[in-house]
Structures are given as structure tokens and as C-alpha cells.
Amino acid sequence: MAFNRRLSFIAEWYQEEAAIIRTFTICFFPTGNAIEVYDQQHKRTFLRRTKMPELSERDFFIGSKINIFGRQFDIVDYADDITKNTLDKYRKKTFLLLKNICIQQLGPLLCALIDSNFSINRALMVQFTPEQVKQFLSNKRNVEASSMLMNQLIGGPSMGFEVIADNAVQKMKLCKEQSKECSNDNTVAALVTLFEREETRIGIYCPQDEEEAEQDLNFFFNPKNGLQATLRLKNSTLGIIKPHCIKDGNLGRIISEITSNGFKITGLRMNLMERVNCEEFFEVYRGILPEYIPMVAQLASGVSLALEIVAADENKNSYEEFRQFCGPMDPEIAKMLRPHTLRAKFGVSKTLNAVHCTDLPDDTILELQYIFKILD
Hints:
By secondary structure, this protein is of the alpha+beta class. The chain has 3 domains: about 5-85, PH-domain like (Roll); about 90-225, 2-Layer Sandwich (Alpha-Beta Plaits); about 235-375, Nucleoside diphosphate kinase-like domain (Alpha-Beta Plaits), CATH 3.30.70. It contains 17 helices and 14 strands. α2 (about 105-115) packs antiparallel against α11 (about 250-260) and α3 packs antiparallel against α4. The chain is globular and about 60 Å long. The termini are far apart. It comes from Bactrocera dorsalis (Oriental fruit fly). Its main location: cytoplasm. Keywords: Cell projection, Cytoplasm, Cytoskeleton, Kinase, Transferase. This is Nucleoside diphosphate kinase 7. It holds the Pfam family DM10_dom.
């Protein structure tokens, strides 16, 4: 019975050539991490039961995006009552806003979230305008808190996150309030410890209930509201934390390494890139690197985190400094020659080498614009 346990979802895939949305049923079998896809329109199997070790049960929830062999499927509903009853009351979304006054806490926040079994599904660094802040605060009931939040959001860039966990809204709220209920829960000990500092409690906003969480998420991640990723494009360079590192739970640790070694993050966006976009992005390596195809497959295999990075010392060349900090492409060589680099610490192979960094100085602006502007 355990072998046949499955979770079923309704999913949509946008077929660009025909400019139509096609509907599928996706079945995920937790035992063996296998996928089966059924084409509802043509009433036939689209993909027979196939193992996909890069996917896990945590990747499937309403609103998630799943990459299957280069095709991006949007999970829009449950396909049966068994799946709905199993997941609906547990896998919940909430919103977190890291204010400018607390951006240096990004690494510790992500580490605490991951250690407390939260998944980061979407992320974006933005600069609110006064009008956008008013729109964002229009549904807030606490007028005094809203006034303070307005001043904080106008004062500098903020980072917004959609995070997923069992009972996410209540769990986050209780951790921030330092309630006894959470203090006795070992599964969220890292978050409780993070919120012990008053400046952290002030610097991180979270909604009070599920309705407010839904409103916040709909506003922040809706392109129609005009919130755009911050991008400096001046003595800056691109870094991408690859999907395998995010799946392995190393996102927060890598961010902490970056920000504690002489770099600042001036742009941030989480992406799930289509295979065609990954091929286009890595086009310069086609025919040059034998790892080109697996590099594309890795970047398309799940969410990645794109960063605009600048050297904290403005007199230094951000491109060169960060490229050196990433280390050699092959982690085995990095471990021998430069053991303190990111690829030495978090890389596994030439393909699973933790981070992408811009290789040529003339490509920094091109790569930043492609990831932050063209893919937007």
C-alpha cells in the first residue's frame, strides 16, 4: 500500500508555441519520488510513472511551480479528496517582510526558517514607493503599527518572502511573540532564538492571520502592483544559488557566507526558470564546456536564488572579488587550492557546484538584466 500512496494535483502548463494553457493531472508517489502525468484534454498518459529524485512531497502544494523535464507546471488545485484532506490543513503559506533596518539578518533568518521546517517558495527585494506602501497597508487594522511600518518601508529596500510550513501563519506569529507554546516546541527552536532579539522582532513583519497573509502575498507578488526587483547595475555582479543547494537546505548558510565576507546584496529574486531560458542563459558555454547540458538541467530542476552582489568596499571590483570568492568551477579543485570558497564548502561536482557567477567582466550587466529584467 505504501508503494502505491500518491498525491494528485491539477496542474497547468502554458504551451508558448500555441499560446494556450493545457491542463494535466500530476500524481506524485512519495515512495520512490516518482511522477506520473495525465493529459486531461487528450485523455491520455503524458508521462508514465518516472522517478524524479530532485522532487519531494514538500514541493507540492497549491500555488507551487514544478519543473518536469524542462516544462514548468503550475499546481492550481487538488485532483482528489484524499490529497486535499491530507495536505490542505497542513501545508499553509504565509508572508514575511524583512525590513531595511534588518537586512543584515537575511542569512540567520533563512537558516532559522529552514531549520524550523519552513520552505521558501518566492522571494523578492523591492523598494516601496509611498503610494505602494499605502496600498500594502490598506487592509491593516492596527493604525499605529501601520504608520511605523510605512516609514520603515519607505526608508530603504525590503525583502519579501512566501514561506510554506504546517500551520505557517500561526507558527510564525507565535514564534515572533515568544509565546510559551513555541518555546516548548523543539521544531521551531531556531526561530524562537532568532526572535529573542528585539531588533529582529521589529525588523521582520509577518501577518496576523491567514486572511491577511493571503492579502499580503497577493499584493507583494502581483506584478500589476508595480513592485519591481531592485537593481543597481553599478560595480555589481550576478550570483545564482543553484537548486541543489536550496533543496539541500544550504540557502541560509550560503547567504551568511556572502554577507560576512565583504559583500552586500542589492538585488534578490527567486526564480523557477524554464529549460529554454536556462539554455539561453548558458548559451555562451554551448560547445565549450562538456557540462553544458547537465548545467542547464540543474538550473531548470527547481527554484534558484538570483542575487545582485556588490563589494562592501566600493573601491574594490565587485565582479572580480565575488568570482574569486566563488572559487574554481570544480569543487574538488576548489577544496584543494581554495578551501574557503563557496564551491569548496557547498559544491558537489562541476555541475552541482553551488553557485553561478559571471565569468567575463563585460557580461555582468547582460546577465543581471537577463535574470532580473527579461525574465520578469
